[in-house]
Amino acid sequence: MGWGLVIAIAGAVVAVILAGIGSSVGIGIAGQASDGLLSEDPESFGNILILTVLPGTQGIYGFVAAFFVIIQLGLLAGTVPQITMAQGTQIFLACLPVAFGGLVSGIFQGKVSAAGVAVAAKQPSESMKAVILSALVETYAVLGLLITILLLMGIKL
What we know:
single chain; mainly alpha; Four Helix Bundle (Hemerythrin (Met), subunit A); 82% helix; elongated
């Protein structure tokens, strides 16, 4: 296995790890707020479930990006191409938008979702507005994934 392949695989790993960290922290933040509300009002679970899980999507985006890299490298087919350091570096760099977009947006989406839980606590009928505000933060993770996919598609092996 050449260094170009190692660098390319490292890009997939970074996408999964950083986006996963963003999701984990974001869900942790939203989950803490949700648990606080549930301790006082267990019936509110349905209203806050979406707010709690929304930050988890960034980790999925990192996984999707890594899957694209795995497919592009042919790792599932058993035929791994010999790629140059330049190609490996291109793949690594192509993974960074979803990696950092997922890391940052996951954390901030968790904060917005936690604030949305406070809205749901005071005005349960308005909880979907809080979901929309939280989803706005996710837009940037989606854009990061889109750029990553477009960059990966442009790399010729």
